[in-house]
Amino acid sequence: MKVSLKTLTFNPRLKKAPIISLQGQPVALFTEQHCNILMALEQKKIQLFSECRNGYCGACKTKVISGSVTYHLQPLAHLEKDECLPCCCSPNSDLDLELSAHYITAVGKAVTTSS
After folding, report:
1. Is-contact 98 23, C-beta < 8 A?
2. Looking at the domain assignment, is residue 80 inside a domain?
3. C-alpha–C-alpha distance, residues 67 and 82, integer Å
4. In a domain, 7, yes or no
5. Is the dihedral of CA 71, 73, 33, 84 positive or negative?
6. Nearest to 98 by CA among 23, 28, 20
7. Where residue 70 falls among pLDDT bands split at 50, 70, 90?
8. pLDDT, tens digit, for every residue of 14-69?
9. Does residue 4 sit within a domain?
10. Which H or E run contains 94?
11. β-bridge partners, 64
């Protein structure tokens, strides 16, 4: 393949896929195939208690350590400034969540965390 200066030019429409971390441990890459953060975590076999599919809003409320999110739908549950509902939002940037995960799978290896 012939490489030219035009090939190496940055395309502003393309941006880096956000990394979702749990207490500093990277666990998922959020891509266009995910509808929300909850789906991205579930795809990586990370268990997060949620009652979203049963009509109860607020059960998946999670503290955000760093990063920010955008909501697809207005949340029904009351949220503090440092909280999010993973079921109805997506990350704007790399995101670190404070989840009390006892056992997570990250980057192809098993990791145990304390809660």
Report:
1. yes
2. yes
3. 10
4. no
5. positive
6. 23
7. very high
8. 578 999 999 999 999 998 889 999 999 999 988 888 888 887 888 899 999 999 99
9. no
10. none
11. 97
**Most distant CA atoms of the chain, gap in Å:** 55
Residue 25, token pair as written in the block = 């441990």
Q: What is the pLDDT of residues 72-110, one digit of tens each?
A: 988 889 999 999 999 999 999 999 999 855 444 443 444
Give the single-character DSSP code of 33: T
Q: In the structure encoding, which two tokens stand for residue 93, read together?
A: 């940037």
Segment holding 38, helix H or strand E: helix 37-43
Pair of tokens at residue 27: 């666990």
Helix (H), strand (E) at residue 50: none
The arrangement of strands across the sheet holding 25-29 comes to: 25-29, 19-22, 95-98, 62-66, 83-84
Residues in the chain, total: 115
Domain residues for the domain of 39 are 19-112
